[in-house]
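Q: what does this look like with zinc ion bound?
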Amino acid sequence: MSRTYVSKELRRLVVKRAENLCEYCLIQDTNGVSFQIDHIISEKHGGSTTVENLCYSCIYCNLQKGSDLGSINWETGGIVRFYNPRRDFWGEHFRLNEEAKIEPITDVGEVTVRIFDFNNNERIVERQVLMEVGRYPSSQALEIMAKKPEE
Ligand SMILES: [Zn+2]
C-alpha cells in the first residue's frame, strides 16, 4: 500500500526492475490485472519511499498484504515476516506446481502464500489459463523462479 506520492521516475524504475512482473506472484502486468507500487515495509511501520523499499505488485497481492509485515506460524506461535523481493530469492520460498498453485517451501513462504491469498481459486484459474497459452510463468518469471543465492 502506498500513501506517499511515488514520482513518475521512481515508478518507472521499479516497473523496469521488476520486468513488468508482480514481484510476489510473478504474474505479468500485460494480462489485464491492475498493478500498484508497494512499500515492502509499509509506511505505517516506517518504510521509506525509496527504490530499495518499493516493489511492483499486482492488485491482488497488494490488497491482501495491506500494511502487514508478516503473520503468525500457527504451529509454533512465532511471528514470521513476509517474503521480501529485495533480499530473498523467490525459489527459496516458493514452488509453482503443474496446477498453477504456488506452494510454500519455508515459513516465510507459508505466511506469504496464506496472507497474500496466492492460491485463491480465481487466481489459480487465472494462472492456469495463462499457463495453457504459455504466458505464465513468462521467461522472466522462470528466471526469477530458478535464481539461487550463490549466483
Ligand atoms: Zn501478485
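The longest strand covers residues 35-39. Residues 54 and 92 are 21 Å apart (CA to CA).
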